Amino acid sequence: MDANHPFLKFSERLLSQQPFKIIKGLASACIAYPIAERMEKRNVRDKVQELSSFYQIPYLQRKKSVAKRLADIVSFAGRNVPYYRDLFSSNKFDPEKIYNDVRYLQDIPYLTKDIIREQGHRLLSSPLQETRHHVCKTGGSTGLSCFIYYDQQGADYSSAVTLYCRESIGKKKYLSELHFACRFPDATIPEWPSREDFKCFAMNRSNIFFDRIDEQGLEEIWKTLKLRKPFLAHAHPSTIYALACYIENKYGSDKTFSVFESSGELLQPYMREAIEKTLRCSVINRYGLAEIGVIAYELNNNSTDLYVLDSEGFLENRLVDANNEIVVTGYHNKLMPLIRYATGDLATIDERVDGIYLSDIVGRIHDVVKLGGIEYPTHHIQDMLDHRVGGIQEFQIDVRTDMPVLRIVLESNADQTTVHTRLEKFFPGCFDIHFVAHDSFVLVGERAKFRHVVTK
């Protein structure tokens, strides 16, 4: 049957009420998730237990284990990754020295997005066709985008970290969660049941598909939230902040979920305050990136600083224009190990008695663009360009003129005419389209940063 069949609508309403909601949650956690894990040939639950055991060890006692993980991944990269093999050889760097002192890591040059784009498959430890892998495109909010490849172990650890952190703040698997996702204008009504339906059931997750954050779009989001009443909602903070402002203006305040998990962009203090006050929920911040996964999470009830998950990677600061940039080395993704990767994000790394913390985070800003009288978040536009237009390596919207200018860098195998036709299909008359090279992008701010939207 179609996914919008009246019976399914009735079932959704029924399952949002107790006791059916908790029965569904228990069935998801105890039956569907283990089945899905086995069907997909994944191993996530064991890694959640591994993480739980790891963090029961006091920080000072596990530092030796963390140092070994760092030395292991650097040594592995030096043996198996062409880029690092050549780099270590030219620099006469011996990875084995890190086993004795982690400070030798500083002898390795920083890795940047420019190097990742330039080196391509030379950063892989084995050919993609020989390895089960997952591809992830970086968001481009702290620099031009590039592709990151995860092996299965790396992907499983990334999933396990999210589950572990959520369970640590009280979100057990039997409690429902809701994820905000892009709605595509050409999407057809899917058949039910589908693979995605079972995946959502196994995760005890539902999706809100949206494409606008004006009054019409926000009212639709609010009605969906009122119906489903998830325990946790996961979205960009700018989206939930816009929702909070809308609810405050129209209803005063109201509650539909217990926890808002912020990710994907910078959570500003004023956003947190408005969301907590108007939507009457706890706000949990996290720091993750496509290149590594979630690496820090707000786990300390007494502080909004983020607790660094030292089981997953090693963090450093490098000084850039008097600012502390986050540099990270991941432990688990052996297909594409990233050693001393300069993220472009800024934060202070602080070692305390119970672990390492991130504070004063700056970076990963998304914008809102008005096209044809409708306000669109840039992460929605990026999803449209990636999944509906295709062939686009990077984009930038310049709104300093009457007609916004859309600058496009094409993938090497893309056809300009095809891309132009698709852009006009999905964004008719919205842009003056320019096909350019990377050096035509406008860099903004005192650090000359790339931004998807140029406003001044």
TrEMBL record:
Keywords from the UniProt entry: Ligase
Parts forming coiled coils: none
InterPro entries, A to Z: ANL_N_sf, CapK_Type1_Caps_Biosynth
SUPFAM superfamilies reported in the protein's UniProt record: Acetyl-CoA synthetase-like
MF (Gene Ontology): ligase activity
The protein's name: Phenylacetate--CoA ligase family protein
Organism the protein comes from: Rahnella laticis
